[in-house]
């Protein structure tokens, strides 16, 4: 049988890059957190196209696969709506309500002015806090939710739906599979799900972690006469974790298994049939030449990519709830975590992915149970070195310029849109070669720009490529006669 899923349409890289075209994208609002836990993961998926979406106590209606659609409903969500405006470039503006309801974007308070977020920011998921009670994720969907038998793989966004679809497709075949994704992104869970959904599910799944084994150990562990994994697994599934670290000799023997369906057990005189299905997993690209490329070609007959958690922020709520429920079942207690802490969970970039999220949730529940204060920085080792949400070094100069352009050159709103603090934004601006300090611009040039733009400071700041706040300060001081 020849079946290849190695094209952009069928492998999973991120919710958006697998799309046929952006025109098909729908803007979705997923409930990340709600006082009624059963509502976490409910979604409102807008019709394709443009148009504003108003979010208030009574609209829109959020639904899950099982239940009736209902509005957010909570009395602390204002009647006055937060308006989401979709733009043709797939950016989204947030127009805060007139009411005094607290609105947060990516963990920072939103003041009265609209904020425009770039398409890339929406791709990664915007985290919106409403009234101090509900958290929503605004993100794009390229497919509609559907019931799936792959229940162990939690998640409500396009990426999770796609992973479940791929697992189902892959499980229906008997070809080797390669699972790719960062550490903790769910590769072993996906391997288990493939095994469970396949015709081999009555046999065992045996896991061998090749990163921890020397060549001799790996050969014995895999090809040992009676105790080796291939012998033990029989017609089940052999999961080769960290396959990229397998010694060359082991790679050559695995290639032989895939080519001929046979292997020579350690110390044996004759070859033995290998009946197992092979699933390999790696957290790095194996095309760099150090990995046996013939083995790679056979392994990647089917490829499933598990995207990092920071690229599917809409799933953080349901995953956190899943870990909380597992903890409660285990311990028989159910301490509550404050919304501010959940908001930090939803805004962090999770270098250790779902595994790290699970550990942090467990630590937080233990601390809450013991009546200890919950400090995110203390519970997430290394968090101080990584700014929540965005590492400054990862922001390109173009991203900084785009955020300023999209937000009338207002530092405050551009910082909010980028998910960085204002002091960080000042640093980024200070070292950006294309952004000018107001003090470096000749007064005559400023006067000419003001005249050309009818005194509109936003457009004037854009034309001068200097922040609006600095231009306004300059004009105030000028009006007060200090610059004359
Ligand atoms: N979509 C998911 N739903 C529920 N739990 C998940 C999901 N993805 C990952 N997990 C959980 O996160 C933890 C880490 O997942 P897993 O061990 O499968 O990651 P991995 O990619 O194989 O990691 P590594 O590369 O470090 O071996 C496990 O406890 C797993 O059950």
SSE arrangement:
Elements: E1 26-33, E2 43-45, E3 52-55, E4 82-86, E5 92-95, E6 103-105, E7 108-109, E8 115-117, H1 119-124, E9 126-130, E10 134-141, H2 158-171, E11 177-181, H3 187-197, E12 205-209, H4 215-223, H5 229-233, E13 237-241, H6 248-260, E14 262-263, E15 272-273, E16 277-282, H7 293-299, E17 302-306, H8 316-331, H9 339-347, H10 353-369, H11 376-379, H12 397-406, H13 411-418, H14 422-430, H15 443-452, H16 457-464, H17 468-479
Parallel strand pairs: 11-16, 11-17, 12-13, 13-16
Antiparallel strand pairs: 1-2, 1-10, 3-4, 4-5, 5-8, 6-7, 6-9, 9-10, 14-15
Helix pairs in contact: 2-3, 6-7, 8-10, 12-13, 13-14, 15-16
The chain binds adenosine-5'-triphosphate.
Residues 153-155, 181, 183-189, 241, 281, 283, 319, 322, 354-355, 358 line the site of adenosine-5'-triphosphate.
